[in-house]
Amino acid sequence: MRDYRHSRRRWRNSPEEIESFIQPLLDGNDFAKGSRLFKTRPRKMPPYRWFGNKILAFSCNILYGTRFSDICSGYNSFWKKAYLALDLTYAENEIGCSMEQQMIVKAKKAGMRITEVPHTSRGRIGGTSVLKNVKLSVNQGFRDWFVIVRERFRG
Which of 35, 84, 115, 128 would staple 70 via disulfide (CB 3.0–4.6 Å)? Predict the structure, then answer.
């Protein structure tokens, strides 16, 4: 495995944890999705984002029979063939940052083996989120929620 220590300050998620995302694939999973919320709220995550993520995870868990703790982590691994099988529409007609939610729920609907991998998050490094305030975050949260619900009832 490559030595990522030299780039550590540029990464929001720890590059040292990449191996923990590869092993589940080698163990037979199609998709390894990250969770920053496996144990507790990350120190730099605003409470409103933590709460919103909990609502999204709860909705996903109810609608798809999953037990995820975080569906907005952004730290995932998957086989190329699994990704290509998802038929994502995000790039064509989605607004915002809902691609991850679409990937997760389509993978679940397709019967793919998904496991959740705990990881650490040091928060944003060297920049700010495009969701700069509560209003923008809430709007994005609703878009994410509608993706989760819409995909559940699509054929």
Answer: 35
Q: Are residues 71 and 104 in contact, defined by beta-carbon separation less than 8 angstroms?
A: yes
Q: The pTM is what? A: 0.82
Mean pLDDT of the chain: 83
Scanning the chain, the segments in alpha helix (DSSP H) are: 18-26, 47-64, 80-85, 90-93, 99-109, 134-153
Give the contacts of 56 (CB within 8 A, at least 6 positions apart).
71, 72, 101, 141, 144, 145, 148
**pLDDT over threshold 50, residue 11:** no
Q: 1: which residues sit within 8 A by CB, 6+ positions away?
A: 18, 19
Residues 6+ apart with CB under 8 A from 123: 12, 42, 43, 44, 45
CB atoms within 10 A of CB 71: 26
Q: State both tokens at 8.
A: 């550590």
Which among 153, 155, 130, 137 is positioned nearest to 64, based on CA atoms?
153
pLDDT tens digits, 69-102: 999 888 899 999 999 999 888 655 555 677 889 9
